Amino acid sequence: xxxxxxxxxxxxxxxxxxxxxxxxxxxxxxxxxxxxxxxxxxxxxxxxxxxxxxxxxxxxxxxxxxxxxxxxxxxxxxxxxxxxxxxxxxxxxxxxxxxxxxxxxxxxxxxxxxxxxx
Length: 118
Fold this sequence. Notes:
Elements: E1 25-31, E2 46-49, E3 58-61, E4 65-71, E5 78-83, E6 88-95, E7 98-103, E8 106-115
Antiparallel strand pairs: 1-2, 1-8, 2-3, 3-4, 4-5, 5-6, 6-7, 7-8
């Protein structure tokens, strides 16, 4: 299995995002396989970036996991995510309705906006 480099466009999005984005949004998320192909979304695996949590920058996927995100300095469309199980990945918003997540510099997840605020 060879590592696929993260495409350059992931880190150079010029899309304009609303204030506090992605707080208050929900996303349908699909996995990338080892060949870089996007799998169908898993029912119920909705990523939510919480707007009304007592913890700032909280996120969760139903009862699967909880975590926090921090904005990546110098990358206006990127956040770094750390889950309660210590899993880590980055999310790059390509547009206000699409994202690509990377993990250890490999394609990890693809997200499509479902709505907000929640």
